[in-house]
Sequence to fold (304 residues):
Amino acid sequence: MKVAWGGAFFYSTTSRHGNARITLKVVFVEVNFCVICAFPCVQLRISMNHLKIINGDALIELGNIKTNSIDLVIADPPYNLGKDYGNSHDIQGFDDYIAFSRNWLGQTQRILKPTGTLYVFMGFRFISYLYDILDRELKMFFNSWIVWHYTQGIGKTRGFSPRHDDILMFTKSTDFKFNLDRVRVPQKYYRQRNNMRGANPGDVWEFSHVHYCHGNRQNHPTQKPEGLIERMVLASSDEHDIIVDPFVGSGTTLRVCQQLQRHAIGIELNPDYVAMTRHRLEAEFNGFDTVDPRMARVPLNLKP
Ligand SMILES: C[S@@+](CC[C@H](N)C(=O)[O-])C[C@H]1O[C@@H](n2cnc3c(N)ncnc32)[C@H](O)[C@@H]1O
Fold:
């Protein structure tokens, strides 16, 4: 018999820069009773994941995080395409945007533990510059250039309609955390030489956008699918690890961390998005909003 109890509470404080910080604490207590011999087999599991949302500027707030203290950074910065995030931070001159990127990437490299990993979403215009900063200036280790393929989006009439975004995965050292078994997808075929626990998902990931009609869709222009973030969190961190998202937006990373028992620190400039994230974290959870279609595969048995 299992008895589980969970609760969540928020509290707010003020940072030394005068910005509001909102902290959500989620507590789970799980007691397992053996139905045969009851008392001697009682197990108590207490887990607490700590989610902190800072309403502030990533360039400042990352500077307050301790060096070598973070297991994973998932960053989805403004791509400098002029999107409306309720501020003017997505339209900077070329040199200003590179300086902005160099600044927060440098902070990221500093706060990651030696075993830590960075995933960064970026558009085609600036991705090569970010690669260069991470590789040559910050001496981080390239691991993967992930293509997030989606099946709907804006249509071009002259040229090919964009159907992917790029994500760079860099690690701080060659001794990084990576849990492949947690993110395997079912094999396409049953064969003895295949690992029937599943295949490596590869570096082309298909997840649909969260459609505007979807129940989990937030009022944010660039909300990312939870399934995408789930894969990064499962592969590159363990339960109770600490994850930083410097550009929270609608709170996708924090929501995933909440459900996967990770601690998380999120930073977001726009107070409306901070409030949106807070509501999202309080909402009932009915499963992640997106899933890799390959998870539905039943391997075809080619050989008896
Ligand atoms: C691409 S969106 C992130 C979307 C997010 N991954 C999601 O799933 O909703 C980038 C976010 O960064 C925020 N932002 C822009 N400049 C910032 C800065 N200097 N510090 C913190 N947040 C910033 C924007 O307000 C925007 O919400």
